[in-house]
Amino acid sequence: MSVNPTLIFLPMLAVVALTFVAFIRMVVARSAIIKGMDPSYYRAHIGNPEPENARAAVRHWDNLFEFPTLFFAACLTGFVLAVVGKWTLIFAWGFVAARVLQSLVHMTYNNPAHRGGAFVLGVLFSLALWINLGVSIFARV
């Protein structure tokens, strides 16, 4: 049974959507506190920091440009090399689910142990995705 390789773009779109949700969350959090902040803080982020909820939203936004880059690279690699299979999609969607769970924890009650567990799960799905791609690549060599 062959898999439509363009299906790999659906989990990618899900992470992109999550990134936009995080952006909106960050804007809302910062907008709520901007009147009480010293504008010079935003020149170099020196001085009294933002309140915790705004800092968490900013940190969450930043996180979406760190580890997920490996996910995007894996998905694009699989598509370009035409090795997107059932397991590729399972691992990609597993990463998305873990990332959404991590985001939900981070943006709600923010328990580091729960957030960390979701992060580790995402790392494992990403590792599985890359191993799956590596096997496919070495099978062609």
Number of helices: 6
> So, the CATH homologous superfamily?
Membrane associated eicosanoid/glutathione metabolism-like domain
Q: Tell me the number of structural domains.
A: 1
Largest sheet: none
Q: What percent strand?
A: under 5%
Overall pLDDT level: 93
Order of helices and strands: HHHHHH
Low-confidence stretches: none
- Sheet/helix structural class: mainly alpha
User: CATH class, please?
Assistant: Mainly Alpha
Please give the number of β-strands: 0
The third-level CATH topology is Four Helix Bundle (Hemerythrin (Met), subunit A)
Walkthrough of the structure:
The chain is 74% helix and 0% strand. By secondary structure, it is mostly helical. Helix 1 (9-33) runs parallel beside helix 5 and helix 4 (68-80) runs parallel beside helix 6.
Q: What characteristics describe this protein?
A:
141 residues; Four Helix Bundle (Hemerythrin (Met), subunit A); mainly alpha; 74% helix
Secondary structure layout plus pairing:
Elements: H1 9-33, H2 41-44, H3 52-63, H4 68-80, H5 86-107, H6 112-140
Helix pairs in contact: 1-3, 1-5, 4-6, 5-6
Compact description:
This protein is mainly α.
